[in-house]
Design a protein that fits this description.
Elements: H1 2-27, E1 43-56, E2 65-67, H2 68-72, E3 79-82, E4 87-102, E5 108-128, E6 131-136, E7 139-145, E8 151-165, E9 171-184
Amino acid sequence: MMELYLNLKNYFMKNLIILIIAITISSCSVDDNSKTKVSGLEGTYRLTSYTVENPYDLNADGTATTNIIAETNCFNNNLFIFDVDNRGESQNATKLDIDLEPNSNNQYEYSLNCIDTPDNTAFFYNIEDKIVRVTSSGNTIDGTLSDDDSTITFNIANGLTLPVEDGNGGVTETMQDIVLVYTLQ
């Protein structure tokens, strides 16, 4: 009887040890998916809004707005791509050349040229308290990530130089603060 008791005790002890090891191993998992979101930012964000502080009628349609995308129909393919390793790439497919030239009535009109210039630039980023800091070639810009992680907004002081009439029949330049909004695709 004692021998049966010892055999049962050994059997239960071995099974208990095996059970403890199995539970320990199953509770620890290795995530081999390298695309797991770690910051909530990973993905492709497209430029969906580009506004300036003062309205302009850049496209000569008779309506001045602060929306540069609507006024120019440029910037349709400008992207920020954020990877999980705190690296990314900005893809600026279009740049805008703006001139202010006299027309046949001796009034000034804007001349717009959307220039296709594929420009891919690598960057590093970090995020803390919904502030996204993007750094490339020693330059840093901060943006604000929305609560639902769907948009990043960059406020850039003096980010756009625009030619304007100077009031004396000539042209001068003005600096405009800009707000860029990138939306998760």
